[in-house]
Write a structure and sequence with these properties.
By secondary structure, the protein is mainly alpha-helical. About 60% of the residues lie in helices and about 10% in strands. The protein has a two-stranded antiparallel ribbon.
Amino acid sequence: MQDSAEGFGQPIRQVFEPFFRIERHLPSPFDTQPRYDVRIGDPFWRWLYLPIVRATEWSARVVGRIQQGRISVYLTYSFFTLIALLLFVR
């Protein structure tokens, strides 16, 4: 019996298999150049982190558009923000 990466990684993979999508491709005995391939997908990334990343990118684009304009428009935004904050505090 020979130890391999498959043997060492199998217990960890079995413990975390319910949390990750694991695709495993094993070589057959007749392959001339056997390759072992494991791909692990993180489902939390798609439904938890990806919406946060997209919202952050969208808000950065919106703020970037505000900052790319003329100085008079930027000062008008600042003025109305200051008025709104003064009304909110009052």
